[in-house]
Automatic annotation (TrEMBL):
<dbReference type="InterPro" id="IPR005630">
    <property type="entry name" value="Terpene_synthase_metal-bd"/>
</dbReference>
<dbReference type="InterPro" id="IPR001906">
    <property type="entry name" value="Terpene_synth_N"/>
</dbReference>
<keyword id="KW-0479">Metal-binding</keyword>
<protein>
    <submittedName>
        <fullName>Isoprene synthase</fullName>
    </submittedName>
</protein>
<dbReference type="GO" id="GO:0010333">
    <property type="term" value="F:terpene synthase activity"/>
</dbReference>
<dbReference type="InterPro" id="IPR008949">
    <property type="entry name" value="Isoprenoid_synthase_dom_sf"/>
</dbReference>
<feature type="domain" description="Terpene synthase N-terminal">
    <location>
        <begin position="7"/>
        <end position="91"/>
    </location>
</feature>
<keyword id="KW-0460">Magnesium</keyword>
<dbReference type="GO" id="GO:0016114">
    <property type="term" value="P:terpenoid biosynthetic process"/>
</dbReference>
<dbReference type="InterPro" id="IPR008930">
    <property type="entry name" value="Terpenoid_cyclase/PrenylTrfase"/>
</dbReference>
<dbReference type="InterPro" id="IPR036965">
    <property type="entry name" value="Terpene_synth_N_sf"/>
</dbReference>
<feature type="domain" description="Terpene synthase metal-binding">
    <location>
        <begin position="183"/>
        <end position="299"/>
    </location>
</feature>
<dbReference type="InterPro" id="IPR050148">
    <property type="entry name" value="Terpene_synthase-like"/>
</dbReference>
<dbReference type="Pfam" id="PF03936">
    <property type="entry name" value="Terpene_synth_C"/>
</dbReference>
<dbReference type="Pfam" id="PF01397">
    <property type="entry name" value="Terpene_synth"/>
</dbReference>
<dbReference type="GO" id="GO:0000287">
    <property type="term" value="F:magnesium ion binding"/>
</dbReference>
């Protein structure tokens, strides 16, 4: 039985969520820096999507705290979290570049003079800055680190592990669905010269939108990436200049009647692209009332 179907895990997850919500509420009555650190931990543990409303309300409660009343740690943390959540915050990208250079120099110098947990944070930040990382990979790394912290909250840690496994189970189900779709499409069997990059394409979609509720978004991204990869190989590996020109014209016209003008191996490729793009556009129009077809066509 999947963890997503086990009532024991589902009920435990809901209980833990309620406790963390209460923790955020209680912390909002304490110091600003403690609240910011809690929010940062929750987000880096990959659970920010579970508490969007609570985090927004918590940050809103301290938005008027004057910067001059805070230390450097709180100032930097406040700046990052407020900017991530769309609060009005001071601008100045040139200054941020200077701050980055300044921070890197002093972090490198500090590595040997801090405790092991902080040293791991410093090394991680130097190797892969937070804004350049993938949320799910960051969450997995941060869970291991958080568990070793002396002040780790056991409720937060338990929920982080449980939620991570539940999200992973969701992604596994998605991957199974995508594998079935790709096999049914049959492109990899017909176009044997093309790269079969389903797994890589799916991982990109998880990196872009990992939250469980965005299954359809991940499916659309996966389909687009793998189709674009296949078409890229059609152009670069197999087609002649004239064939590539015909295919380009067919895509630009977006007319199924152009199939007869294409060589056999390109027909199945164009048909797969045409049907997949139109199906995504149709589902989006039906569910959200938005016509995304012009934008999807531009991606290819």
């Amino acid at each position: 039985m999947s963890i997503l179907e086990d009532e024991v895990y589902l009920k435990r997850a809901e209980t833990l969520k309620d406790k963390v919500r209460q923790l955020i509420s209680n912390q909002a009555k304490g110091t600003a820096v403690e609240l910011l650190e809690l929010v940062d931990d929750i987000q880096r543990l990959g659970m920010g999507y579970l508490f969007e409303g609570e985090i927004r309300a918590a940050l809103d409660s301290i938005k008027d705290v004057k910067m001059e009343e805070t230390d450097l740690h709180q100032t930097a943390l406040r700046f990052r979290l407020f900017r991530q959540h769309g609060f009005k915050i001071s601008q100045g990208e040139d200054i941020m570049d200077e701050a980055k250079a300044f921070a890197r120099v002093h972090l490198k110098n500090a590595k040997g003079n801090v405790d092991s947990i902080l040293a791991r944070l410093v090394n991680h930040a130097l190797d892969l800055p937070l804004n350049l990382g993938i949320v799910r990979l960051e969450a997995r790394w941060y869970i291991d680190l958080y568990e070793k912290r002396k002040n780790a909250n056991p409720i937060v840690l338990e929920l982080a592990k449980l939620d991570y496994n539940m999200v992973q189970a969701t992604h596994l189900n998605d991957a199974v669905d995508m594998t079935r779709w790709w096999n049914d499409l049959g492109l990899s069997k017909k176009l044997t010269f093309a790269r079969d990059r389903l797994v890589e394409s799916f991982l990109w979609s998880v990196g872009i939108q990992y939250e469980p509720q965005y299954k359809y978004c991940r499916e659309g991204i996966t389909k687009l990436i793998i189709l674009i990869t296949t078409i890229d190989d059609v152009y670069d590996v197999y087609s002649t200049y004239e064939e590539a020109k015909l295919f380009t014209e067919a895509v630009e016209r977006w007319d199924i009647n152009t199939l007869d003008e294409l060589p056999d191996y390109m027909r199945i490729c164009f048909f797969a692209l045409y049907n997949t793009i139109n199906q995504i556009a149709y589902n989006t129009l039906k569910e959200h009332g938005l016509n995304v077809l012009p934008y999807l066509k531009k991606t290819v």
